[in-house]
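In response to the reviewer comment on reproducibility (Comment 2.3), we provide here a single inverse folding case reported in full, input and output, so that an independent group could reproduce the run without further information from us. The structure tokens appear first.
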């Protein structure tokens, strides 16, 4: 995984987010075995305890699960993955709305802009 760790947020929450994104997007498949916390920590250049904290939180949320002696795996529960995907989409949408409002755009203007992008993508064959 290509870890992108910034200084402005807790590292464990960034690891959680990046794993959630990989699961929601399908980059990590349901039932897929995850690398060990130690391996992920080495790959990300962070403390293994930090990765362990992120993994425990993801497990608490049902996004990953542990099988004794076999490791951690991505949930196979489609409802959890679908809910995660929608939650991430809502967060990104709210960030977009907040940023556009700071630029002075109203909701109607935002919809017009999105419609223009949709028409451009349709014309380019991107949809």
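Designed residues, in position order:
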């Amino acid at each position: 995984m290509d870890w992108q760790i910034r200084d402005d947020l807790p590292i464990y929450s960034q690891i959680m987010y990046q794993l959630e994104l990989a699961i929601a997007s399908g980059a990590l498949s349901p039932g897929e075995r995850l690398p060990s916390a130690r391996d992920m920590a080495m790959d990300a250049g962070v403390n293994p305890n930090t990765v362990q904290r992120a993994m425990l939180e993801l497990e608490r949320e049902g996004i990953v699960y542990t099988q004794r002696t076999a490791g951690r795996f991505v949930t196979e529960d489609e409802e959890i993955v679908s809910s995660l995907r929608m939650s991430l989409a809502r967060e990104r949408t709210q960030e977009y709305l907040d940023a556009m409002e700071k630029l002075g755009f109203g909701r109607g203007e935002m919809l017009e802009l999105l419609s223009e992008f949709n028409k451009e993508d349709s014309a380019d064959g991107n949809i």
